[in-house]
Design goal:
Blueprint lengths: L2 E5 L2 E3 L5 E8 L6 E8 L6 E7 L5 E3 L7 E6 L4 E6 L8 E9 L5 H4 L9 E2 L3 E5 L2
Parallel strand pairs: 2-11
Antiparallel strand pairs: 1-3, 3-8, 4-5, 4-9, 5-6, 7-8, 9-10, 9-11
């Protein structure tokens, strides 16, 4: 059973940076599309960054392009989301998720709004405020 555990959230001032981590276990990342998502109360879950381990393609949400960077440590089976130039509107709960490559594309991954497909972590809270 795939497991994903996020960490690294916290309180940061506008313009600051945070790096989120997602430790994965129980599955081979090479056969999955993975992604970071943001949830704000009252709004749909938003795909932030999605990566296909099958072909190396990556997609970023429009609101974070140029500020957030996805990366992966293959040896540690860990995903990262480096978040720079943070804005108050980046506040939310951040989740990582993994869906088998046969079930989605990297573009489709970032359009997911529910957790019925794939495996999801429990989330980590990011608050951007002065």
């Amino acid at each position: 059973q795939p497991q994903l555990v996020e960490s690294g959230g916290g309180l940061v001032q506008p313009g600051g940076s945070l790096r989120l981590s997602c430790a994965t276990s129980g599955f081979n990342l090479d056969y999955y599309v993975v992604g970071w998502f943001r949830q704000v109360p009252g709004k749909e879950r938003e795909g932030i960054a999605c990566f296909s381990n099958f072909d190396g393609s990556i997609v970023y949400g429009e609101s974070v392009k140029g500020r957030f960077t996805f990366s992966r440590d293959n040896a540690k089976n860990t995903l990262f989301l480096q978040m720079n130039s943070l804005k108050p509107e980046d506040t939310g709960t951040y989740y990582c998720a993994a869906v088998e490559s046969v079930q989605t594309t990297v573009q489709g991954m970032c359009l997911l709004t529910s957790t019925t497909l794939g495996s999801w972590g429990q989330g980590t809270q990011v608050t951007v405020s002065s």
